[in-house]
Amino acid sequence: MAPKITVIGSMNMDLVTEVERPPKPGETIRGQRFYFHPGGKGANQAVAAARLGADVTMIGCVGDDIFGDQLIDNLRQKNVNTEHIQVIKGKSSGTAQITVKHESNSIIVVPGANNEVSAAYVASLEAVITQSDVVLLQLEIPLSTVMAAAKIAHDHGILVILNPAPFQRLSPELIDLIDYLTPNELEYDDLMKNARSRELAKKLIVTKGKRGAQYFDGERLATVPTYNVEVVDTTGAGDAFNGALAYCLAKNKPLDTAIHFANAVGALSVKRHGAQEGMPTLEEVQLFLRREE
Fold first, then answer.
1. Rounded CA separation 111/162 (Å)
2. Name one GO molecular function term (predicted).
3. Is 101 exposed, middle or buried (0-12, 13-18, 19+ CB in 10 A)?
4. What sign results for the dihedral spanned by CA atoms 156, 160, 164, 170?
């Protein structure tokens, strides 16, 4: 049976410009390529898990514009359940302006309808959430909504993963409700400025790009190496990792096994353009892992 994952989070249209270098203040430069495609951390992670074979439900909001229609239709095509996506009248859909320079990217997010994902709406979907094996959250929707979703899941004994991006200060109450936090290195540094390490040690999985991921194995910080691949576009690599981690943990895999698998999914995702288009299938991941053994 396919694991059931509920993703509560953002949906954006990504507007991507490839450049040799970013412009200086006041400078106009010539870009190399422009394109747009569906994104948003919530939607990206939903697609990543669905591509691996999970039964994924997306909860979130889009605007009543052409981007909103495209975002919902895209998720349907990628086998994500869109029944619980709200269309907010008079609001624009979320957008992300992404500048890609060689192997790195910088992103400006305009939340739009993502700010309308309310705690009340999440509470109205408690019956949906409680059918999940894993609830996957990020911070591109209101923090009060993240808190409400985490509490519902925690109260029903459902595993909760929070990808704390873009970073916001997390209350001790929210941290107590989370099973795993998956910051990158910058987010980890910010997180540790505002929280006691003992509270977090057993919950942290820190993604470190080319240097793999670190987690606390009960005795020490353990590093799980990643894979050396040709990088085309790093957009969505962290989301690929999170979707894959949720998939494996929903299948009751050991944490170290889940992180190894998630590293492979993240590595494969950067070999293609686009966050969601780069998400590999389960068959592709299995073939890749066999070749790497």
1. 18
2. ATP binding
3. middle
4. positive
Least reliable range by pLDDT among 134-138, 181-185, 248-252: 181-185
- Mean pLDDT, rounded, for 266-280: 88
pTM of the shown model: 0.92
- Residue 239 labeled ligand binder: yes
Q: Is 44 annotated as a binding residue?
A: yes
Q: Are 267 and 241 in contact (CB under 8 A)?
A: no
Residue with tokens 């979130």: 60
Residue 84 DSSP SS3: coil
The two tokens of residue 218 are 């009960």
Q: Is 207 annotated as a binding residue?
A: yes
- How far apart are alpha carbons 34 and 13 in whole angstroms? 13
Cis peptide before 25 (omega within 30 of 0): no
**CA–CA gap between residue 185 and residue 140 (Å, rounded):** 18
The secondary structure element, H or E, covering residue 125 is none
CB count within 10 Å of CB 8 equals: 30
Q: Tell me the pLDDT band of 135, cut-offs 50, 70 and 90.
A: very high
Task: Please tell me which residue in 69, 217, 239, 256 is annotated as part of the active site.
Answer: 239
Question: Which residues are paired to 108 by β-bridges?
Answer: 97
> What SS3 string covers 170-181?
CCHHHHHHCCEE
Q: Is 31 annotated as a binding residue?
A: no
pLDDT band at 9 (very low <50, low <70, confident <90, very high): very high
Active site residue 239: yes
